[in-house]
Specification:
Number of strands: 6
Helix content: 25-40%
Largest sheet: 6 strands, mixed
CATH architecture: 3-Layer(aba) Sandwich
CATH superfamily: Gcn5-related N-acetyltransferase (GNAT)
Number of helices: 4
């Protein structure tokens, strides 16, 4: 199901072979508040078990997002980032818009994500605070 979308000199691709997992790991483990210190093994396994969206300028990877899903009822949007030098060009918005439009990701009962500072971006695509926070539970591993 690889897909590709082009906007000027930028491309979004779901082709797993195009992803630079070392680049993704480097950004996540060193710059993403939600993934600081994440191991290369963990990043590799997460990529292997997700629908991935690489963002490219030419052949250079400049961003990433992944969707964890059962392709029937549920999706979790995770590890979304665009390199700082490419921000402010609408690429994050285009990335989320593209993910939201993928045919195989339509009709789910629920999408989830977590963000510290990008609520405005995600609200543009229908994300809101949990409607039933007292029903949702989590199990956290503070050692990871």
């Amino acid at each position: 199901m690889p897909g590709e979308w082009v906007l000027s000199e930028f491309t979004i691709s779901t082709d797993r072979d195009r992803l630079d997992v070392n680049f993704i790991h480097q950004f996540l483990t060193n710059h993403a508040y939600w993934a600081l210190g994440r191991s290369l093994d963990t990043v590799t396994r997460s990529v292997d078990n997700s629908l991935n969206f690489g963002l490219y300028s030419g052949n250079k990877q400049i961003g990433f997002a992944r969707v964890v899903t059962d392709y029937a009822t549920f999706a979790w949007l995770a590890d979304v980032f665009v390199l700082p030098e490419y921000r402010g060009k609408g690429l994050g918005k285009w990335l989320i818009e593209t993910i939201s439009s993928v045919e195989e990701l339509q009709g789910f009962r629920r999408w989830l994500l977590a963000t510290h500072d990008a609520h405005g971006l995600y609200r543009q695509f229908g994300f809101n605070n949990l409607s039933e926070p007292d029903r949702w539970m989590e199990k956290r591993n503070s050692q990871i």
